[in-house]
């Protein structure tokens, strides 16, 4: 019987240099809940989930073949800090927060008091 020798390799040598960030199940539930409410209202028609270096993106579209109306971004933070959530339209940052729930408050409809004249 022939013996095989084992070689010890550092895992770091095989990992990519880029950090991949994902949405958690709870975060996806929040995002899809928001998306479904806007679809029911006829505002949004499509979405996409993408991953880039240190970011996870959830983009929503008014029309399938257009640029995203909004992107909700989960960005990796510095060591020891939690991720940052950004609501963006085009290149404009509309809200930045440490929690997804707080970032999604941007989409809450603002109620205003309307007085009837009589």
- Overall residue-averaged pLDDT value: 85
* Poorly predicted segments: none
Helix content range: 10-25%
Strand content: 25-35%
- How are the strands ordered across the major sheet? 1-2-3-4-5
| Element order: H for helix, E for strand | HEEEEEH
Q: Could you describe the largest sheet, including whether it forms a barrel?
A: 5 strands, antiparallel
Cα radius of gyration in angstroms: 21 Å
**Which structural class fits the helix and strand makeup?**
alpha+beta
Using the alpha-carbon principal axes, give the shape. Answer: elongated
Instruction: Quickly count the helices.
Output: 2
| CA-CA gap between termini | 100 Å
The count of DSSP E runs of length 2 or more, i.e. the number of strands, is: 5
């Amino acid at each position: 019987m022939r013996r095989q020798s084992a070689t010890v390799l550092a895992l770091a040598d095989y990992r990519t240099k880029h950090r991949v960030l994902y949405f958690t199940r709870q975060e996806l539930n929040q995002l899809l809940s928001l998306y479904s409410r806007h679809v029911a209202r006829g505002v949004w028609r499509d979405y996409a989930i993408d991953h880039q270096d240190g970011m996870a993106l959830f983009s929503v579209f008014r029309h399938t073949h257009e640029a995203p109306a909004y992107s909700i971004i989960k960005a990796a933070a510095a060591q020891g800090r939690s991720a940052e959530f950004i609501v963006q339209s085009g290149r404009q940052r509309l809200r930045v927060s440490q929690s997804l729930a707080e970032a999604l408050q941007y989409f809450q409809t603002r109620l205003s008091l309307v007085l009837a004249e009589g």
